[in-house]
Each structure stands twice: as structure tokens, then as C-alpha cells.
Design brief:
By secondary structure, the chain is mainly alpha-helical. It is built from 5 helices and 2 strands; from the N terminus they run βαααααβ. It has one domain: Orthogonal Bundle (434 Repressor (Amino-terminal Domain)), CATH 1.10.260. One of its GO terms (molecular function) is DNA binding. It comes from Clostridium pasteurianum BC1.
Length: about 80
Amino acid sequence: MIRIYLSKLLGERRWTQADLARKTGIRPATINEIYHELSERVNLEHLDKICEVLDCRLDELIKYIPNKKNHSKKWWKE
């Protein structure tokens, strides 16, 4: 599963979604979808702008958390 930590990063800076929208030029509705983890797709340019404005690394904004299923079967060859 992919987790988005935008709410945490904004909270640490005491910024609102509107503050981030103004500083990045990203539509407030798009920021809201990312903030609430409702987006199925996220534009790479948006991620770049958010990381730049928040002065954070991508891995601080988005993390991959393995699902609880057994992932012992690999689909690729080593």
C-alpha cells in the first residue's frame, strides 16, 4: 500500500492546504485529494513542487508499506 504523509508534513509546519496550494500553484481540490489520500494517480510534477516547497524528500511524503499478504513468491528472476 502507498501512504501519503502530506497531512503530517503540513501539520508540522502549521500550514493549511490553502497555503500549500498558493505556494505550489496546484489546484486546492488536487491538494485536498492528495492530503486525504483519495488520489489514485499523482502527477510527478505535483510531487516535485510539493517536495520543493515543503523542503522535504519524496520518501518523507510518500511511503510504500508492504501489504500483509505473504510476498515470498517473486515475479522477477534474480
